[in-house]
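Structure (tokenized):
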């Protein structure tokens, strides 16, 4: 082994510029793959972090307008969901664990002026059931969440986000105090924090929750429902449940079975699958681009080894005449090729990891929501290391076969 490494070192010393330039291609290819994988991991982590705090087996649905005539009704019909539809779903659709009807004052993304004594702020005001906390978990800093008694007795209580507390109450304890929403007074029974991140967490912190039945009566909503959040049980995939719910409500509301736009709906399973598909496509593209750069570097190593073999024709002839077998000659060339490729690849690996870690350090504490915590997995590093060794051996095959193809007599006659 000592003689082997001495010979490899001799080859490098003879042509340092040539070896370095050919190794740059391999280093650049490995570095490119690792950086792209690290950036994609950071992007994926950021996107999935925004989905935290939402049950993976949850779905949301709402009514829209019909687009097909059916049951004597013309297309373009508007329809609503009502309280009795909740009980119907629970009794007729299998796979439902929780149903949480929801309302928002001012409609979707609507905010309202909320007052406490002399302080006023604009916040989202929602009407919800206690079961909503299972669909969208939250942390309670003070007090409690809504309970069934609040629903049954239509109590004028509310749970506020921490930003609502900061704006309206400051350092004052909000529990037991009353806030005013459109002239109606609600007593604060709890303060919550969001388990989400980024803009979603900020939006949650500016939300006020009121018992659903209280909301309907206080703001003259009758028995209408804005939209539904539904949780599937452990045995039912949420995609299947979504199809069952929509199919059942189409029958109940006299909507054409093939009307795809009568309801709006989405679920966490579909969102996660879409994200995973996008990330997979980006990884494939990143690996493909890096592999092309790496291939160019390997071709450069092959060319260098071919030139080196040509320059060492007489040396190989002497080896063969002294008893060296073709296998030994092939092993020598393959060892040199594998060594050069591995060293160049390790340099690229170190630089790739260092650059990803540097980017991770630079973005710490930033307000970026989509891109967070770039990283390179151990498996990816291991695969790259193995690939370098394999490519190095493959890259040395052609020069090695050329070396043993030369007859010893012809090799001894060669110049140099």
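Design, position by position:
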């Amino acid at each position: 082994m000592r003689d082997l490494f001495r010979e490899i070192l001799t080859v490098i010393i003879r042509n340092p510029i040539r070896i370095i330039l050919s190794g740059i291609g391999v280093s650049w290819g490995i570095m490119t793959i690792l950086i792209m994988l690290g950036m994609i991991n950071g992007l994926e982590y950021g996107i999935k972090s925004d989905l935290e705090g939402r049950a993976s087996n949850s779905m949301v649905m709402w009514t829209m307008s019909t687009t097909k005539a059916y049951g004597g009704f013309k297309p373009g019909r508007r329809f609503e969901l009502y309280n009795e539809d909740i009980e119907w779903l629970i009794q007729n659709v299998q796979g439902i664990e929780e149903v949480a009807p929801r309302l928002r004052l001012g409609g979707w993304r609507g905010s309202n002026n909320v007052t406490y004594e002399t302080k006023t702020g604009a916040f989202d005001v929602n009407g919800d059931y206690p079961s909503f906390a299972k669909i969208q978990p939250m942390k309670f800093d003070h007090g409690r969440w809504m309970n069934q008694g609040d629903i049954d007795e239509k109590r004028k209580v509310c749970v506020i986000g921490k930003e609502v507390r900061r704006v309206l109450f400051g350092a004052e304890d909000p529990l037991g105090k009353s806030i005013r929403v459109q002239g109606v007074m609600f007593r604060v029974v709890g303060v919550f924090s969001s388990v989400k991140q980024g803009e979603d967490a900020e939006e949650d912190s500016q939300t006020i929750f009121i018992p659903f039945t209280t909301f309907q009566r206080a703001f003259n909503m009758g028995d209408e429902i804005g939209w539904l959040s539904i949780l599937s049980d452990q045995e039912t995939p949420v995609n299947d449940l979504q199809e069952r719910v929509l199919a059942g409500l189409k029958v109940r509301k006299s909507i054409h079975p093939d009307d795809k736009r009568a309801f709006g709906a989405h679920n966490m399973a579909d969102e996660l699958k879409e994200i995973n598909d996008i990330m997979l496509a980006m990884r494939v593209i990143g690996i493909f681009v890096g592999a092309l750069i790496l291939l160019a570097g390997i071709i450069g190593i092959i060319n260098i080894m071919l030139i080196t073999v040509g320059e060492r024709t007489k040396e190989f002839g002497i080896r063969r005449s002294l008893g060296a077998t073709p296998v030994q000659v092939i092993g020598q060339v393959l060892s040199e090729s594998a060594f050069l490729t591995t060293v160049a690849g390790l340099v690229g690996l170190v630089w790739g990891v260092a650059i990803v870690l540097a980017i991770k350090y630079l973005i710490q504490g930033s307000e970026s929501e989509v891109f967070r915590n770039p990283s390179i997995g151990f498996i990816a590093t291991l695969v790259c290391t193995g690939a370098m060794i394999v490519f190095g051996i493959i890259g040395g095959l052609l020069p090695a076969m050329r070396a043993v193809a030369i007859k010893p007599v012809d090799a001894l006659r060669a110049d140099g």
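Reviewer-requested clarification: The chain has two domains: 2-51+273-413, 58-267. Residues 50 and 197 are 5 Å apart (CA to CA).
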